[in-house]
Amino acid sequence: MKKVLLASAMLLAVFGLRADAATISVSGPSVGSLIDVTVQATNLFAGRDPLTDGIIAYGFNISISDPTKLQYLGATSGPLFDAATTQPGTDVFGAASGFGIFDPVVEPLLLVTLHFGAVGVGPTDITLSSNLANAFQGLQYFNRPFQEDISGKLSVTAVPEPSTFGFIGIVLLLLAVGREISLRAKPRKDEHEQPAASVWHLR
Amino acid sequence: MHLRNHLNRFLVAVFSILALTGATAYAQLTGTGTVAISAAGTTSPATQDFNTLANTGTSSTLPTGWYFLEVGTSANNTYAAGTGSSNAGNTYSFGAASSSERAIGAVASGSQVARIGAQLVNNSGGVLTSITIAYTGEEWRRGTLTNLDDGLAFSYSTSATGLDDAFTWTTVPALSFNSPHCGVTADVATDGNSAACRTAISATISGLNILPNTTVWIRWSDSNNTGNDDGVAIDDVTITAAVAFVSTNPTATGSASPNPVNPGGTTTLSGSILQGFNPASVSYSISCNLTTIGGSATQALAVTGSTFTYLASVSPGTGLSAYSLPCSVTDDQSRTSNFSISLTVLLPLSATCGTTATPINIVQGSGATSPLVGSTVDLEGIVVGAFQGATQLNGFYLEEPTATQDGNLATSEGIFVFANTPTVNVGDRVRIRGVVTEFTSSTGGLVSNLTELGTTSNATVCSTGNPLPAPVTLTLPVTNYSDFERYEGMLVQVNQQLYVTGNFALGSFDQIDIAPSVLYQPTQTVGNAGTWAAALDLINRSKIALDDASTLSNGTTAQNLFPTLFPTGGLTAVNTLRIGAKLPATFTGIFDDRFGEYRIQRTQTLAFDNSSNPRPDTAAISTALGGRFKLASANVLNFFTTLGSRGAATASELTNQRTKIIAELSKMGADAYGISEVQNFANGNTNGVTYTDAAASDLTTNLATATGRNYQFIDTIIAGNIVGGDITQNGTDAIRSVIIYDAGKLAPLGQAALYYQNGGHRPSIAQTFRPVSGAKADQQTFTFVVNHIRSKSSTCGPGDDDLYQGNCNGTRTSMTNAIKSWLSTNPTADPAGANRKIVMLGDFNAYYGEDPIQALVGSGGYTDLINLLIGANGSSYNFGSQNGYLDHGLANAAALPLVKGVVEIHNNSDEPSSLEALGTNAKPAAAIAAWFSPDEYAASDHDPFLIAFNPLAGDLNDDGVVDLADRNIIVANYGKPASQVDRRMDYDGDGTITPNDYRIWFNFYRAFIQ
User: Fold this and answer.
1) Minimal Cβ distance to B995: which of A85, A88, A135
2) pTM for the whole thing?
3) pLDDT for B783-811, tens place per residue?
């Protein structure tokens, strides 16, 4: 059973290297014990020749500002990519299935869904970054420029499962019971109500 | 007197002849007398027309002052009168039958070669500064027509006392006679007096400084050449000289008697004095420094006329040693020369056990040879190795008892005693008298001097069962090569891991070479004379032999070694001892110095371990290599179907040789083979006139039968098969290279091209192929080139030979440069044109760092695949107990990315050569059977190698198409080092498989599907 005490969701920033580059969007819940963040791309062939170019991979690094609150659990590549892996110097990498992803393609193109799990209570930032000097990072194309930047920061509030944090969970449960008693006559927000999705547009 | 006032004035002078003695069992010297300058100012030259030589039968009579020396098993002290009609090796008085017009000469053979010369003495009273010699060289017999090197090589020596090669000789090419080859028919007499058969020769030897009353020897040497030799002679010799009347010092020589002398004894020092000249000495004084024997530093010796004498006392405390007492002679003109008198100080002889004996460490000394050579001494020590009897070493090793060892690490405490009596055993305390000797033995140009006690007598086994002196620890490499000497004759213990680095002599002498690791040729690495010299020095300090302490051997003259002691159980085809095998971690033996190499004579059973370099599974290696096409290089060590020539001598040898070669080639499973050393001429000879494809066909047919594959060979003796149609481009050597290919996999495109670079060099052969199957095969051509470059075996002369890179390094470099230029012309008309892919392989007879290979790599446009993919430990050949690869695979820039891999198969070079099928005449019958098995091991002396190659770029699974399966291979290997995966997918060459490699691959895919 999930226990959600706080919730916030925010689109924090937009980044981009080129005016005619693809647009990367990152979305996900602002609070939870299990937080799935989706990374999508639009304007895939902006400034490119769709007849000769195509996407061959994505890759970037993930950092969590407060690892005592949240941990990265893994990733699920979008349906047009091979299973997500890691590569040297890269936290998540996915190769485009088949020979590559070519125009036309339905946008936004889901690159990957990142999975996080709460390990503590409180706010933390999830930062995506790509070092284009690393051959496995960025949104990768056949033609030059071979790599485009994937980066951004998402603020979430982590709330762990009680079973995960027994002592804290017990304390929180007691607090919740106390609040339930004190607010019994008042309407309250459903525990499973999700906040609105947040979307970053990264140039 | 007038001349003495013009000291540097040169005069022509005449020589006279001195006496000479001495002969050996195989070197007979004949001649007497001397030639002297008759008097200062004489202008008549010494001449000799040899017309006093016998004109019938045999004789030993020569003109005064002239000599001849015969060397070889047929040597005697006579020459034969002849017309040139005889092919027998001998010294000859050449001339027409019964004619008194004679010349002296020789016909060389394998059983006899001759040296002809004269001893000249300077009696002019001045210093000879130059000698002019004029003579006529004459050819009295034509030998084999291909023998182009015959003649008489001239040299002179100011230190010789005869004509033997052992003296120091200076060659004078301008005075050498090269046979004019006036005869057009082989093996018949020629008229040496005819103009066509005579060559007038004259030259001056300058820069001499031959003092009055000293001698100089001149000689002409005849060498045995391949095939039958010419009959060559000298006639009408004229010798003149220039003399400078300069002042010369008196000289003196002296000796001691008795010598040796005991400490506390006396000895007479005496000698004679040679006069100084210009002006002549009248009186002399002699002074010697006798401090080493307890005397004065300026002891005057009494002089009477031209002799001197002095009774010297040797102080009782004088150390046992051989001394060289420095002395000087001074004449009335205050001219001085130094000389020395040798004196040995030894203990008095005693055969009684327990009395003081000469310490072995004194006999050994700290130098390379004993200071007491020639001295008779009594030794008493403990037997640490007993190898008496004709089948062993005919002696034993005696070591100084621990109590009387000197503690000096630089002096050995052991010595070999050359004595089969009395019978001794390890642990015996033996006292024995003998003469200190340096036993000289050699292998090739390497010479050993083993200090030993010979001519023994008064031997007593004083006691038995004594504890042995503690063995001294031997650690390799030694700091300095000379350090080996300090262990000579001693019981040593090795406490480090050693490996077999050479096994060439295992089956012939039961001897292997060992070192802390397998050694590699210095020139395997790119370097220079300095780095190669340092590497060679380390090798020499690291390597010793391990010997069986036996005289049993296998060769063409004796076949009595079987079984061998190494490895345990004896060498057999299935109980091998490979290069890289490990020795026990610790073992003991006797340190010895014989046949040009320091060695350990084994005293215990030694268990070897081949697991550190086991026999390769050839088929498995080939399978693991994979690839669309396998290109093989294999030197098959003279595969001749004509028996008794350069290859197999018997039908049995041929059968066994074929069996092994086919086992090797079939298990390699290649699609194209570049085979070296296949019979070229029908008669098996060099320049045998009629080419044959019998051996090439034999190999191909048997390979096809063994594998069930459709192997064919490029038959280059069919004019229609080769560009230009000139089959003489197959060359004149007895061997050539052959391309064998699987016609089910590869199709030749157009004609093969041969490139013959004259001389005895094997031609290169090139053939363009395309795949038989697969899409767009016509666009996947590649040119396959097989080379076999000039060997290092025989000299090509100064400037061409290289001290480190071997004989004919210049010739090889020239050849590879020429091959590079030839291939740049697209000799096979490969339709890929400028983009053609070239894979070149074969036996280049050069290691990677040597000039011939460096001419091809780098800016030469080719990449050495062995160097690139195997590296410094690549090896296809073991020579001098050092590994290295003479066999190379090279790819041009277009072919390099298409090479999946390369692998050497060490089925041959790591094996003892005795396991090869050939050479059964040098093996006992039991060994012939035990050392052969029908497998690929020891199929040749070179290792083969395989190159995995696919001319279709992007076809990573080698199925003949570029498709998604190839893409999946790249993606599956993302992030991996290129060294751990199929190297081809690292298209950008950054060492890691990345999306960028996929981008490049995708271009190959697009090109393929378009």
Assistant:
1) A135
2) 0.77
3) 999 999 999 988 899 999 999 999 999 99
